[in-house]
Amino acid sequence: MIRNIYQQIIWALLLVMVLPIAKGIAQESPMEEDYYKVLKVSSPEGTLLEVGGLTMLSNGTLGVSTRRGDIYLVENPTSPRPHFRKFASGLHEVLGLYYKNGSLYCAQRGELTKLTDTNQDGYADRYETVFAWPLSGHYHEYSFGPVQGADGDFYVSGNVAFGNEEWWRGESRVPYRGWILKISEDGTMEPYATGVRSPAGLGYIDDKLFYTENQGDYMGSGGLWHITKGTFAGHPAGLKWTSLPNSPLKLTIEEFNKVIDPRQHKNEQGRMIKPENIVEEEYQTMFEAKQSIPDLKLPAVWFPYGIQGISTSEPIKIPEEHMGPYGGQILVGDQGQSKIMRVDLEEVDGELQGVSIDFKSNFRSGVLRLAWGQDGSLFVGETNRGWGSAGEANEGLERLVWTGEVPFDIRTVKAKPDGFEIAFTKPASKNSIEDLASYAVSSFIYKYHPVYGSPPVDHQDAKVVGVQVSDDRMKARIIVEGLKPYYIHHLFLEGIREEDTSYSLVHPSAYYTLNKIPSGQGLDRKAVITFDSRVKKEEEEKAKIAKAAPAAPAKPAKEAPAAKPVKQEAITFEVVKPILAKNTCTACHNRDTKQVGPAYVDVAKRNYTNEQIIELIHTPRPENWPEYATPMPPMPHVTREDALKIAQWINSLNKKQ
Q1: Integer Cα distance of 457 and 438 in angstroms
Q2: Cα 209 versus chain centre, distance
Q3: pLDDT mean by block of 10 residues, the chain; 657 residues
Q4: Predicted structure pTM score
Q5: Which SS3 state, helix, strand or coil, does residue 513 take?
């Protein structure tokens, strides 16, 4: 017994000695997958889901619609072996599903359809057209929805088509392409809003209608718009129908084109010239155009292209106690990047704006639809046929499950008259949160033009000059010099560390769309923390130099030996990896497999010269890769030095084949 007591004392002493050492050892910070697990929903062999819509029935059964025209009811969807039953079939590319009063409503290409099982045998036997709209037959005329408003009416949205000769330009060939329609259960239709191009995500959240947009012509990047009756969201194609008697908007294409040049020019052969991005041109932004087009609605949140948004999809509200301390915020899927972002909105001077932060990536296919399970998990419906995605699978139905452990992350960001207030999910360490070196802020904006997408322009670094920290160290209010209204502000908090573990933030970047700078009094600069470890380090370096011994007397110069040739740096993947990440290339391209764009090894097989690759980075030619649905946007912000290294690395892959 005495021996056991001695052993316990020795082990206790060893533990006391080891714990401080272990705490001081740098540990790898946890990542998304440590807090959120992705589970594949098992489906019957041979079932091709290609999910277009998800909805949860009142009894916990999951409704799933597919792009192939089938609708399944999945019983016990959270169990290891859920039961799939084909409820309906023969429909036309169902890209939305909604459950109401025992029936399912879905948007087919050309109509809003009500499906009912009247004899209770588990299969739909009544297919009713609620409202039908015209189709031209163009492949891009996808229809999305429905979602239901507070008054019980439904909302659906319609993609634009593309031109024949002007294959790059969105156009509305029939009413009401490029519109959001409001439809009652009795089939009454009301044109509600226009200016949408590819409105794949509709959401009715807190009595407000939202939609998400993809990058394209007139759309510099993806975004989240708040839609009200008569909204014009920015794409001009739908303005073709504003002369119809029931249009809530009177703006015409001719009036729009006087503000934004459509750049419809012909070459010497009489063929239309595709508009391309012009470097160092005079340009307009969307907020500048709004001064001449009052009906133009700005996005509440921009999703930076290639970083967060390629093909943004469904927005869905997070219920309280779901997925961590984010209740009330919004999750937004992205089909192209196979990921989900997190958005928190606030209203400033009557205008919605807010922050977007990455949430969970690495789904098996493109994330199109989201639905909450009764157990608090999130069902994720996926597809990529014809569209491409970071996830290589053609389709998928997965379930996102929170482990119950709270990650150390940015919970939200709020705008202040002189900067931003950042809230964390856990207390930050005193040394990191009180150090200005932990914070970096920059801003940029997009062009508003008929070119496919826009590079980020007018990139400027702001200066963080002070910080006020809450007593619990879960909030930091930073004073920022250089705030710019309507710009996207990138907050990069690489230096922030958790109090207990010294872990870094799971997502150190947040993107705040600052439509309005709040009015009011800023912080007293004399009462905030201004310590900056970078300044201290600079002073220490200067002190070392000052204390250094004086240089030895100069000796007579000797004839310099012949200069040795400088060994050129080998452009390996390790060299180019941070360049690809910095310029968001990896969002669309992989080394060996196609993603949103072609694999680098396939680019190498084209035998472009380095100079040609540099030119194609700055001014892409999507016609060179017609098999890819998403054109590459111009990337003139990639420096020539970086572009050359990328080109050299790509061409080195061809030599290794």
Answers
A1: 25
A2: 19
A3: 45 41 58 96 90 97 97 96 96 97 97 97 96 96 97 97 95 97 97 97 98 96 97 98 96 98 96 92 97 98 90 96 95 95 97 97 96 97 91 93 97 98 98 97 97 94 97 98 97 97 96 97 95 85 72 57 58 86 77 84 91 88 79 80 91 77
A4: 0.88
A5: strand
